[in-house]
Amino acid sequence: MRGVRHHETQIKVRFNEIDAYRVAWHGHYVAWMEVGRSALAEQFGLDVESLAAAGFLGPVVTLELKYLQPALLGEILTVRTSLARGEAATLEFRCTVIDSDGKARARGKTVHVLTDLDGVLQYQLPQVIGERVERMLVWQEGP
């Protein structure tokens, strides 16, 4: 079975991101996931601006995050992001935050529904969005 290609974004743990325990504060992992998700989505016209230009919004309806090991000040982390193939009219982005040794520090996902600009839920992916999603999935599953 072929592996899924993913997008990689590097993050350096900054001083303002550590807490009283001297590890990265848990809330920053969500922001790091968003950085990775946005970078991947932008390549395929699924970022916030491109969705809005096409007449849609993609609000988060589910956020899951499992912390595995703490990240420390100055560490270089990599956020690996991919889009899960699904049947529903949603976008499910999966992220793994890894350290320089390849060890997972956290794993998570966000699920986004699509609405029009007035907030009306879309029960099917609009054609223009479906085409962009398919291009991303072909890239991920490609050679």
Automatic annotation (TrEMBL):
<dbReference type="GO" id="GO:0047617">
    <property type="term" value="F:fatty acyl-CoA hydrolase activity"/>
</dbReference>
<comment type="similarity">
    <text>Belongs to the 4-hydroxybenzoyl-CoA thioesterase family.</text>
</comment>
<dbReference type="Pfam" id="PF13279">
    <property type="entry name" value="4HBT_2"/>
</dbReference>
<dbReference type="InterPro" id="IPR006684">
    <property type="entry name" value="YbgC/YbaW"/>
</dbReference>
<dbReference type="InterPro" id="IPR029069">
    <property type="entry name" value="HotDog_dom_sf"/>
</dbReference>
<protein>
    <submittedName>
        <fullName>Acyl-CoA thioesterase</fullName>
    </submittedName>
</protein>
<keyword id="KW-0378">Hydrolase</keyword>
<dbReference type="InterPro" id="IPR050563">
    <property type="entry name" value="4-hydroxybenzoyl-CoA_TE"/>
</dbReference>
